[in-house]
Amino acid sequence: MENFEAANDLLLQLASKQIDNVGKDYYIFDFTDEELMEIISKPDERCKLDYLLAEKLLKERGKEIIPEIAAAINKQRIQQLAQPEQSQTGWIIAGYIFSFLGGLLGVFIGWHLRFHKKTLPNGDKVFAYSTLDRKNGFNIFIIGIICFIFLIILKILFWVE
């Protein structure tokens, strides 16, 4: 996490050196105040130069962003991004089907649902799926392994004879 902070600080420093060299034809200059506020509220979706330019333009338009408010907006954004993805019903059904058929695809689906994490803009890693989806992913993973081993044993037994 400290590497993320150091990297972000470095990117901000580099962007602040470039900000005065940006031409007036740069696309951000045509943005409305609402569009600039969206850049401020979702700094992870744009480059640091766009973020600093949005701050600068809003300040020039009389709508300065207070650092405490920007920090609160960023904290809220992190909390929003940390939320698990919507239920993966389709993948869960497909995972169970492929697992019972003895396919490794079911094992991979189960592993992904159970262990996949997403990295937040601040460097924290959180599970991408809900607890229920992760439990189903673990079940799919185990069933897939058992069925795959069972299928291999059957093939060996019938192949030898």
Number of strands: 2
Amount of beta strand: under 5%
Helix content: 55-70%
Q: In angstroms, what is the radius of gyration?
A: 24 Å
Based on secondary structure, the structural category is mainly alpha
Work out the helix count.
Answer: 7
Q: Low-confidence spans: pLDDT under 50, at least 5 residues?
A: none
| Main sheet record | 2 strands, antiparallel
How many separate structural domains?
2
Estimate the mean pLDDT confidence: 89
Helix and strand element order: HHHHHHEEH
**Morphology:** elongated
Describe the structure.
The chain has 161 residues and is mostly helical. It folds into 2 domains: 2-82, no CATH class; 89-160, no CATH class. It contains 7 helices and 2 strands. It has helices at 2-18, 33-41, 48-60, 67-82, 89-100, 104-115, 131-160, and strands at 117-119, 125-127. It has a two-stranded antiparallel sheet. A hairpin with a 5-residue loop joins strand 1 and strand 2. Helix 2 crosses helix 3 (48-60), helix 5 packs antiparallel against helix 6 and helix 6 (104-115) runs antiparallel to helix 7 (131-160). The longest helix has 30 residues, at 131-160. The radius of gyration is 24 Å and the shape is elongated.
List the helices and strands and how they pair.
Layout: H1 2-18, H2 33-41, H3 48-60, H4 67-82, H5 89-100, H6 104-115, E1 117-119, E2 125-127, H7 131-160
Antiparallel strand pairs: 1-2
Helix pairs in contact: 2-3, 5-6, 5-7, 6-7
Question: Tags for this entry?
Answer:
68% helix, elongated, 161 residues, 7 helices, 2 domains
